[in-house]
Amino acid sequence: MNAVFFEKIKDVKDVWLYLEKKERFDTYQTYDWNFLLYQNRKTSISNLINQNTKTYFIVIYEGSIPKCIAPIIEGKIDGKKYIRLLGHGTATGYLDFVYTKDTTHGEIQYCINCLKKRFENYNFEFSELCSNSLLYRQLLKDDLEFISQNRRECYAIKLSGTYNDYFKSLSKSVRQNIRTSYNHLASDQMEYQFKIYNYADNISNKLEKQLYHIYTKRREEWGEDKKNNRLLKIYKRLRGQNRDIVFQSLNHIKESCVGVLFIHNQPAAFLIGYKNENTLIVPRLAIDTTFARYSPGGILLIEYIKYLYDNKMVGGKYVFDLSRGNEKYKSSYGGILFYTETITFRQRSSHGENKHYSSNL
User: How much is the pLDDT for 230?
Assistant: First the structure.
């Protein structure tokens, strides 16, 4: 095996697309998504000011055949040098190396060892790793000095059978809350409509701005203190949705879709997701609390799930992945708890067994 080191993502495009052709990746592992991450990192004003734009792509080859890509970024925290995965600190739900199912433990280990050799005096912080990730499992086996390890709660609704099966699986109180929401709409004579906009539908700029306003307003309501809220408002005015990777993806990621619940002709709740095989990954869901009486987020979920069943998209199984976060609605609507892992580590100072790994790094 050998490793080749690149600094520009366009230089690994052909290799990346070769791996994508071999296997259908989730959105977060595609070249198009990572190109957005790379572009945002390289053009971030704060990164440019702090000279914090270094990004690398290490490609592992078996002979002439590419087996794995490690997209990483270099940075500093309190003077200490760190290596992280590209996408750290963004809305990317899951991070990993880029590889196919036939990639072996040995090939992942070789890549890890090349990184340790190239960045010998660095700490490594790999975040948002799925617990079943080959990279995560291999890191746990390696002889590393672990500095910290923590996990983040995530939820996914696993759909099968019929819509009635799903509805009956919810608790009695949740089912009653859903009925109450629809009853309130009817008694208040508030018409509602659920729409899905796929990538090819070209969602209007006006609606996109409305949805972004709902999202930033909701974030302000979640704010921990007034200082954070003021900073968020400044960010919104100066940079807006053009710097938000999830909103950016609507014009760049073919798997992207938007589900919107309109109440009285106004967007009351929305989600942005990425459609992969038998899975919808949802990194963004927000409601306009003006319509809180109708629990618009709950109706949005129910209407989307009805749509999946009505259009026979739920075959043997379908995963409605609500991603990271422990908001109560995720479990209430049938979400099953799982975790992403973050580990911070460095190689042991006496670690000599890596020296036999050759690489052109």
Answer: 63
Check: CB of residue 243 under 8 Å from CB of residue 272: no
Q: What is the 3-state secondary structure (H, E, C) of the chain?
A: CEEEEECCHHHHHHHHHHHHHHCCCCHHHCHHHHHHHHHHHHHCHHHHHCCCCCEEEEEEEECCEEEEEEEEEEEEECCEEEEEECCCCCCCCCCCCEECCCCCHHHHHHHHHHHHHHCCCCEEEEEEEECCCHHHHHHHHCCEEEEEEEEEEEEEEEECCCHHHHHHHCCHHHHHHHHHHHHHHHHCCCCEEEEEEEHHHCCCHHHHHHHHHHHHHHHHHHCCCHHHHHHHHHHHHHCHHHHCHHHHHCCCCCCEEEEEEEECCEEEEEEEEEEECCEEEEEEEEECHHHHHHCHHHHHHHHHHHHHHHCCCCCCCEEEEEEECCCHHHHHCCEEEEEEEEEEEEECCCCCHHHHCCCCC
Looking at residue 114, its amino acid is C
Q: How does the average pLDDT of the chain come out, rounded? A: 90
- 124-162: pLDDT as tens digits: 999 999 999 999 999 999 989 999 999 999 999 999 999
Per-residue pLDDT, averaged over 293-318, amounts to: 94
335-347 vs 144-159, strand pairing mode: antiparallel
Q: For 159-183, write each residue's pLDDT tens digit.
A: 999 999 999 999 999 999 999 999 9
The average pLDDT across 273-300 equals 96
Range name among 34-43, 72-81, 184-193 with the lowest pLDDT average? 72-81
- Tell me how far apart the alpha carbons of residues 152 and 355 are, in angstroms, rounded to a whole number: 35
